Amino acid sequence: MFKYIREDIKAIFERDPAARSSWEILTCYPGVHALIFHRLLAGPCWRLGLRWLARWFSTIARWMTGIEIHPGATIGRRVFIDHGMGVVIGETAEIGDDCTLYHGVTLGGTSWNKGKRHPTLGNGVVIGAGAKVLGPILIGDGARIGSNAVVVREVPPGTTAVGIPARILSKDDEAKKPEAEPKAAPEVLDADKKKDFSAYAVSRDLNDPFVLALHQLFDHVAKTEERLAVITELLRGQGLDCGATGKADEPLDTAPLDKILE
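The chain above was modelled as a monomer; its predicted structure follows.
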């Protein structure tokens, strides 16, 4: 148990710049308190068949921390529940090692049937504030769920999902990130090894495929209108009636639409 606590404290120092001391983490971080209750009291009681007592301990932990972890949930090592208020982790949920959950996250079920009905998180998963991951789906290793996303389908490893319902973001920009220089100082290299951690699971350099598709559609419409205008002028020059008189119609201005999607 103490080994888990030491690992949790180290993980929090790596992921939370506000952490100042081990004593502060032990006394002021509700995510740590909730995990201690789960690992030391609620979880063992549940596995021993003391189901009411396990639920009672989890209820006490919820009153104290605002974090509801069902005693039947499986939680790995070095899991960080940041802020924590409103987090709900269901009975058959499974959380891998090195995962990070922010406040308002729900790992919920979509069925009233017994059995596996909650999600499974791989290692190194980051779930942003308010996100809902629902059903017996798999979130792959290193995946990121954006804040307030609603995920009802599996998320491949190493990808980012955002939106309602969640969509997988393009990784083109990630591939363009410059590689670390080989002569960098050891401190810089250590920082680069933090699994490309993004607070709240969203970075500004990722492309939403839905937005990209709309931009491409707007560009296609604008180019098509330009071609039609050229063809219309050529036909008029040949003396043909194109069904319009006077000045040609104003072309579609896509700038306001692009601005909305920025």
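The chain has two domains: 2-201, 209-261.
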